[in-house]
Amino acid sequence: MAESQIRVALEKLSQTIAGQPEKAKAKHSPATAVLMTGMKCRVSGPAGERIETDMPAAMGGAASGPKPGMVFQSLARVMLRDRDCHARSPPRRESHNARGRR
User: Can you tell me the distance from the alpha carbon of 58 to that of 98, in angstroms, rounded to the nearest whole number?
Assistant: First the structure.
């Protein structure tokens, strides 16, 4: 998706939410974050997904897991890579089996 398309989509979304604020409310189950001990946090998703993060000892944590910022950066990189891959890939063609059926 080109930058101009993203801008247009975000502007349209902003206008929709301004006129109908109830559409901004998430329809899926939210994630739950719990502060465990010290600086360790556990985030659980609606389908049982789970990640635990912790800060380094120098920042009051026990370094028992990745730092929250490291997790965020990793997710951002994956999303950007995925976006770039889709932008570069040619449109998919429909495939047919040996009998010409889809």
Answer: 63
Mean pLDDT for 55-82 is 89
The percentage of residues in the chain with a pLDDT greater than 70, rounded to a whole number, is: 77
Q: Show the 3-state SS of the chain.
A: CCHHHHHHHHHHHHHHHHHCHHHHCCCCCCCEEEECCCCCEEEECCCCCEEEECCCHHHCCCCCCCCHHHHHHHHHHHHHHHHHHHHHCCCCCCCCCCCCCC
Report pLDDT for 66.
94
> What phi and psi, each to the nearest 5 degrees, are found at residue 29?
-70, 135
Query: Domain map of the chain by residue range?
Result: 28-88
pLDDT at 41: 94
